[in-house]
Amino acid sequence: MRSKRFCAILWLVIVLISFTTSAQSDVSKWLTKADKTVLFTKQKMSLKFVGAQNNNPTIIVNEKESFQSIDGFGYALTGGSAQHIIKMSPKARTALLKELFATDGNNIGVSYIRLTIGASDLNEKVFSYNDLAEGETDLEQKRFELGPDRIDVIPVMKEILAINPNIKIMGSPWSPPLWMKTSYDARGGMLRPEFYAAYAKYFVRYIQDMGKEGIHIDAVTIQNEPLHPGNNPSLLMTAPDQAIFIKNNLGPAFQKAGINTKIIIYDHNADRPDYPITILNDPDARKYIDGSAFHLYGGKIEALTDVHNAHPDKSIYFTEQMVIEDPNESRINIVSPIKRLIIGATRNWSRNVLEWNLAADPENKPFTDRGGCPMCQGAVTIDKDKVTRNLAYYSVAHASKFVRPGSQRIASNEPQGLPNVAFKTHDGKKVLIVANSREKAQTFNISFMGKLVSDTIGSDDVATYIW
């Protein structure tokens, strides 16, 4: 009797081990095809790791070599984006926000949002939170008021936080109040030194007042595109001026107010890595700084690694890139933003990837006059309650749903024509994002812990693998 019982237990253990091993070897796949026949869809057939060898190109994933932690993937929630979302019917708005920010089912799990501090070029009109007549001043920010954001940005953010309370939120200004500038104009000009302290208090009030609304600002950048004064609104801020403002005003103001919001510098193109490096070389400024932020309208994504190598103790962020497509085209150029941004930025130490921007209408409105962006397409196009999903939606989805905050990038090689990036999630799952940049379909292997899984994806297709 004892022998039979022992055999039964042994058989059960063997079955459980076999089941566990089999489950661990199953690889799920989410695919987007360039011909639009498949758009971010989970494939029905799972793949399995086996021991067999072959001559196909092989992506070797090595979880023993790890790099930066990931904060999230997402978009800018501009005032214009919020304007369209808040005007949807409650039912349609709830459905859209759940699809964007929840992680279950087919929802895409956006985990990072960038807000504009005041207006950006994707608002109907320019405003700050302390608009005064020319010649007036308010050094103590007694007239500070979030006003315009209370109509759309704040209520939309509250609905997002109800879906995902842990979403990371960054704030970025396009311009200080006009009375603080060398010219009383939303475009260009510089921050007058006598108003540095007042502007630091402006940041403090923004963080405090948003906090009172239940919106925690995790990080701020000092100035959106500080070397592009032609936008509306905009500001020219040189690296030496940004360093002075941080070390003498903003850093101490945050410290005095007990604010732990991260201070992030630069927030502009990858063609000027010298800008953040110069500021970080200043010990009095760098002690207040968490890291540097980049866009990719100029320069090479590898410049992010140059900044990391110069100051490896400081974080790297990717905060903006416009990703657009012609909705009438028969193909979707999904491989481009995946290769340049999702793969490119994270392989060069970025903790996040944010695309520009979340939503617009069919005419890409609103945008400001005299320097707004008439070609800035949203990740979704909103026409009353009708929602169209665009290139930025699908490119972010391939990462945001699976690479949750706290995941770590792990090592993977890059066979020719197969750019990729790999991550290990907090619960031990592995995520591999692969783009086929070749002109024909490619069969390849994924190697993990000595075993292989083989798959084929078409030219310009993108797949995310999870196991």
From TrEMBL:
Superkingdom, natural source: Bacteria
Q: According to its record, what are the GO cellular component terms?
A: membrane
Keyword field: Glycosidase, Hydrolase, Signal
The identity of this protein, by name, is Glucosylceramidase
Q: Which SUPFAM superfamilies match?
A: (Trans)glycosidases
Which InterPro entries does the record associate with it? GH (IPR017853), GH30_C (IPR033452), Glyco_hydro_30 (IPR001139), Glyco_hydro_30_TIM-barrel (IPR033453), Glyco_hydro_b (IPR013780)
Q: What is the lineage of its organism?
A: Bacteria, Pseudomonadati, Bacteroidota, Sphingobacteriia, Sphingobacteriales
**Family, per entry:** Belongs to the glycosyl hydrolase 30 family.
Q: Where is the signal peptide?
A: 1-23
List GO BP terms, alphabetically.
Answer: glucosylceramide catabolic process
Would I find Signal among this entry's keywords? yes
| PANTHER family membership | GLUCOSYLCERAMIDASE (PTHR11069), LYSOSOMAL ACID GLUCOSYLCERAMIDASE (PTHR11069:SF23)
Coiled coil region boundaries: none
Q: Tell me where in this chain the Glycosyl hydrolase family 30 beta sandwich domain is found.
A: 406-450
What organism, scientifically named, is this protein from? Pedobacter ginsengisoli
